[in-house]
C-alpha cells in the first residue's frame, strides 16, 4: 500500500472519483505518515488531480512543528482595540489585520474606556478626532492611568499631521504616529515595531 511521506503543511482536498477503489488507512499508518490532524470521517487520503491516485478520498492533514505551534499561539493571543469614529476605516483596519490580530472596535472615547475596563488588550490603535465628546488623546490618557495599560503600546492613527498633535500624542505615552490614509504594509510594520519595543 502506498504511504505518503512525512510532510509539513496542508494537502489540498480532492473529490472521490471512484468510490470502489477507496482504501482506508488505519491510525498506526496515519501516525507513521507524520499526520497530526485529520479531517473527514473515513481517514482516507486524497491527492491532487494528476497523481497516480486520483480516486482516493479527500482529506486535510497537518504536521505541526514546535515552531509552528509557537507561532500560532503568539498570533492567537494578540488582541487590539481600535478607536475610530469612521465606520469605513474601522472595517478597513479589521480587514487588514484579520489574519494576524483580533480587533475590537470603539467608535468614541466613552466606549473605548468601557471596553478597556472590561477587557485586556495587547495593543491600542486610536484616531485623534472622534467627533463629539473626548478625543483620542483624552481617551488614551485615561486608559494609560489604568495600571494594566501602563506598558500597552498605543498607535495614533490620524489624518492630522500637525507637529503639535504629534507631540501631544507622545507626551501622554503613545508609541507611534501613523498618518491616514495608510497602506496595509505601513500598519503592520508599525504594529510589529511597537510590539517589539513594548
Quick recap:
Helix content is 36%, strand content 14%. It has helices spanning 27-32, 66-77, 87-97, 109-118, 136-144, 163-171, 184-197, and strands at 37-38, 61-62, 79-83, 102-106, 123-126, 154-158, 176-179.
Itemize the secondary structure elements and their pairings.
Blueprint: H1 27-32, E1 37-38, E2 61-62, H2 66-77, E3 79-83, H3 87-97, E4 102-106, H4 109-118, E5 123-126, H5 136-144, E6 154-158, H6 163-171, E7 176-179, H7 184-197
Parallel strand pairs: 3-4, 3-5, 5-6, 6-7
Antiparallel strand pairs: 1-2
Helix pairs in contact: 4-5
Describe this protein with a few key phrases.
single chain; alpha/beta; Rossmann fold; 2 domains; disordered N terminus
- Biggest β-sheet: count, sense, barrel? 5 strands, parallel
Determine the mean pLDDT: 75
Helix/strand/pairing category: alpha/beta
Total strand segments: 7
Strand content: 5-15%
Secondary-structure element order, N to C: HEEHEHEHEHEHEH
CATH fold title of the largest domain: Rossmann fold
Task: Characterize the structure shown.
By secondary structure, the chain is of the alpha/beta class. The protein folds into two domains: 1-64, no CATH class; 69-197, Rossmann fold (3-Layer(aba) Sandwich), CATH 3.40.50. It is 36% helix and 14% strand. It has seven helices and seven strands; from the N terminus they run αββαβαβαβαβαβα. The longest helix has 14 residues, at 184-197.
